[in-house]
Amino acid sequence: MVAEALLTIYARLGIPKEILSDHGPQFISDLMNQVCRLMGIKHVYSSIFHPSSNRMCERINGVIKAMLRKVADKHPDDWDRLLPSVLFAYRETPQDGTKFSPFELMYGRTPRGIMSVLKELYTDQELVQEVKTIYQYVIDLERRIYDSCQLAAAKSSENADKATIYADRGAELRSLKPDDKVLVLLPQTKNKLLMRWQGPYIVRERISKVDYVVNVKGIDKVYHINILKLYHEREEEGNAFMSLGVALVNDDCSSQTETMSLKIPPMEVKKMLDMGVIEPSNSPYSSLIVLVKKPDGTNRFCIDFRRLNGKTIMDKEPIPNQEDLFAKLSKASIFSKIDLTKGYWQIPMDDSSKQYTAFQTPIGLMQWKFMPFGLSNAPATFARTMRLLLDGIPNVISYFDDILIYTQDWMSHLKTLDAVLSRLAKHGFTARPTKMYIGFEEIEFLGHVVGKGKLRPEIVKVERILKLSTPKTKKQVKSLLGLLGYYRKFIDNFASICNPLTELLRKGSPEKIEWTQECEDTLNKIKHLFSTSPILALPDLTKQFVVRTQTHQIQVLAEYCCNNGTTTYYHVRMSAVNYWTGRKSTQ
Question: What's the CA gap between 421 and 416, in Å, rounded?
Answer without folding.
Answer: 9
